[in-house]
Specification:
Elements lengths: L5 H30 L4 E2 L5 E4 L2 E4 L9 E6 L11 H10 L3 H5 L3 E7 L3 H11 L4 E4 L5 H4 L28 E7 L5 E8 L8 H6 L23
Parallel strand pairs: 4-5, 5-6
Antiparallel strand pairs: 1-8, 2-3, 4-7, 7-8
């Protein structure tokens, strides 16, 4: 990387600023398009196991009209949650209270039984709501759990990737109308959920960036394992 005089640095920075402004306008437009997507009705009854007992998807809104779900990779056979999903959870943990002020409830859902979820949540020191979909088809229906015969097929991320694993990461958004009807408005997977990882957004500001060399989050550990 070259080292230049201040005036040359400023000229280069202003050139990049113009591109950043263009990107910001494009991102704002994309956000409007995302928010304008049509909705689909959630017609299946899902019952989850959570800290408050058995709860339907509608109950998980906790009195708000918007529900943001993080699909946390935690298989029933595992004793601890995915370290990369744990990295994501460390990032969204502090924003939950702020989201509530904008009519949004944010939760995590995994296939692991509630006893394992609660133990891991205590280990990590998290307070967000986290429920188990162990007894229902929610994770399969919303594209983050795959049967053995599906795992080598392009069925993840809207048919663009083979999941390889039984569980994959993602985020889904739901809304509820005044009559209590629930609708699915959006889901994103793989790189599509980068936006909710604030640590990655900070890393994108520094010279080395994510410094991953195309290897993904190979460096990530659970925060009590560094």
């Amino acid at each position: 990387m070259s080292v230049v005089a201040h005036d040359d640095w400023l000229a280069a920075r202003k050139e990049l600023l113009a591109k950043e402004k263009e990107f910001t306008r494009a991102r704002d437009d994309l956000t409007r398009q995302r928010q304008a997507l049509p909705w689909e009705a959630v017609e299946k009854e899902y019952v989850f196991d959570g800290p408050e007992g058995k709860q339907t998807l509608a109950a998980l809104f906790h009195g708000r009209s918007q529900l943001l779900v993080y699909h946390f990779m935690f298989d029933p056979e595992d004793e601890a949650g995915c370290p990369v999903c744990s990295f994501w959870a460390d990032n969204f943990e502090p924003v939950v209270q702020h989201l509530k002020q904008r009519d949004v409830t944010m939760i995590a859902i995994s296939r692991a039984p509630l006893s394992k979820i609660e133990a891991y949540k205590q280990r990590m020191g998290w307070s967000f709501t986290w429920v188990s979909a162990f007894e229902n088809d929610f994770n399969h229906d919303y594209g983050v759990w795959f049967a053995p015969e599906e795992r080598d097929q392009p069925v993840y991320n809207y048919g663009t990737l083979a999941p390889r694993n039984p569980n994959r990461e993602g985020a889904s958004v739901f809304t509820k109308d005044e009559s209590g009807n629930v609708f699915h408005t959006y889901s994103a997977y793989a790189r599509g959920i980068d936006l909710v990882n604030t640590a990655y957004n900070y890393l994108d500001l520094v010279p080395k960036g994510r410094d991953e060399d195309g290897r993904g989050a190979f460096w990530v550990r659970r925060h009590d394992e560094y």
